[in-house]
């Protein structure tokens, strides 16, 4: 049956080489193709590995694997400028007549070995690795694809994580309702980066995380249920990625409730992301940051949460409710964050 389709989208074209479609696309992983198309879309723009990962909902390790795959296939080549800054900007140039540049500002990721089907078959002779794959497939109730086998090969053989620890990673994730290979890989790498070598260490860490997540849910008045997937992702970010302790996260939760009068994980995330970017790690540093902001506000540098064009002193917000007898906060973080959330 003939199919004749026409795009309903406005034409803002990204040109893809026919050579890529004819010779490379059919052999590539679908996720790798998405990342290649994203690179083509941002031809000539400065983007980072983390930006690509965020845009496609991939991990940075996924992006690094895709870049390595396309380099090996000859579709992308790496050019390092002679006078590169310490950040080692890298430009990726696409071959076959379509060129793009991806200038990454992040530090290079640790080199990752590509695991071919032949190499994985060789690992099958390792009893611990074979048992790991068998147990993981049982937990996840599926037969692994080549991509999933590659992930476990990398974690076991590349990072030298013990098979018992990897089995517990799978058990931990599945019991939490997460069966995505990307999620499992992210957790495993996170544990590896924290130096965990045994199941006991992982269980102690998981217990601490459970206490932290319970504290957040209780602070938000949600202790009558378990956190959802997106809420877990936020808490993972706050405690693991950002590295904040419970006191700091509780402060963000309290400020969220004071500003919105309802639990809002995105709002709290905006607060914590701001503190992370400001480099604060303690309550004393947060207090100093508040004081600095208040001084700038009083000096007229900001007006209604934005820089004043006149330089006049900003007028603090006051509540409209006649029953509010308490003084309003001078620091208008709330308006700033709410505006940002509305724009998303």
TrEMBL record:
Transmembrane segments: none
Compositional bias segments (type: Polar residues): 307-327
Residue segments, region Disordered: 297-327
Cross-referenced InterPro entries: DNA_replication_prd_bac, DnaB/C_C, DnaD, DnaD-like_sf
Any one Pfam family match given in the protein's UniProt record, by short name: DnaB_2
Gene3D superfamilies hit by this protein: DnaD domain-like (1.10.10.630)
Domain DnaB/C C-terminal span(s) in chain numbering: 135-204, 225-287
PANTHER family documented for this protein: DNA REPLICATION PROTEIN (PTHR37293:SF5), PHAGE REPLICATION PROTEIN-RELATED (PTHR37293)
Family: Belongs to the DnaB/DnaD family.
Protein name: Primosomal replication protein N
Source species: Lacrimispora algidixylanolytica
